[in-house]
Structure prediction request, 481 residues.
Amino acid sequence: MAADTMLRFVATPQSYPDKRPAELRAEDFREIADRYAIPSAEEQAGRCSQCGVPYCTVHCPLHNHIPDWLRLTAEGRLREAYELSNATSSMPEICGRICPQDRLCEGNCVIEFSGHGAVTIGSVEKFITDTAWEKGWIEPLVPGPARGQSIGVIGAGPAGLTAAEYLRKYGYEVHVYDRHDRAGGLLTYGIPGFKLEKHVVTRRVDRLKEGGIVFHEGFAVGEDTRFAELRQRHDAVLIATGVYKAREIDVRGNEASGVIAALDYLTASNRKSFGDAVPDFDSGSLDADGKNVVVIGGGDTAMDCVRTAIRQGAKSVRCLYRRDRANMPGSQREVAHAEEEGAEFVWLSAPHSFVGEEAVSSVRANRMRLGAPDASGRRAPEVDPGGPIDMPADMVIKALGFDAEELPHLWDAPELGVTRWGTVLVDNKTLMTSLDGVFAAGDIVRGASLVVWAIRDGRDVAASMHKYLKAKAAADTKVAA
Prediction:
């Protein structure tokens, strides 16, 4: 490593790719920042301190070799940087766009602690793989030698897609079943284009299709076929459905017209971006144009809703969160982006009721304060006796998180074990469910979480399924002999 290539964090200030002006980016769904030019990427990568214990890698769920590909980028060896980045992640350019780096790799960067500002890891990661796509360095998915065994993957989100890719490389016949008409799960329909433009997802899916993975889109297990029949069709099955059941809030007026679930709202917006016919959007019920919008929640989904409403031309956009800014679960960067674009955050507030005769017309919110820590260690919100506040609202978007659907009931599979939260119960070592040959991974196991964790789970479950199927093939051969 050349001494003049790295360790530049003292002389070179931190610099992210330039964001488009807030008033301009709020008019469209393009990503808000372009990627680096090559000299800028190399310069920012060269700020890495190459520390002996890379906390960025430790705190990355995929344990990406971050200091190594930063060094290669700084040295201008971009193809090698891409290959190393791709070695541990099946979607590095997606993680570079949507991972909350401020809570993971960059938030644990050693030079961040020294006051010099973290290395801009996510932006460099995005730059590396976008360059690889442009230069034609992305290799086709080449299946391993055929094993004569097939796998059914239920769910085409990040966990299912990652597992499918690894399993195809092992040589299995892989079929992916998804109830949506496009693969990608929340990457396609849940995350807005200003964070993740859809061609970025589409080109990943196309690569998997070209590699021989068979996609059954618009296919709902429990409706188009029974779960038991799917098990008979394949040598092993992976459940990677994610969690899509909207978490509800028990307040008066919850059923009023204009009070909607976050995922319904985001899906409608993304479908319009694809050019789909969306009657509920066209009728105005899922379109924020000209409306006073109130979003309930403090996570990344709430931020997505807030920023989508701004782009749709909302008259006003407020976000209510029951704790303060320092205790919100979402990315602080996303909050800053939303504020720049015109959103108002009403901290320490929680809905008391949604007011309106037939359609919602306002939100009455309790003022909150933080009390003693709860079981999680966070200070629990409690109602402040100062009295409620009222704010106009023609649309209320509930972004309170997601729970698991009742899969044993939906799939007529009462023998499928679930936890008390409804997530699928698995063996922690093998990731196999209570059913032999049926595995599960991603949010349907861990609950609503990050895309990077879903990718990690997909990678892990593929290795476990490979081990199981090799043993099954060996046992079948022994019996036949």
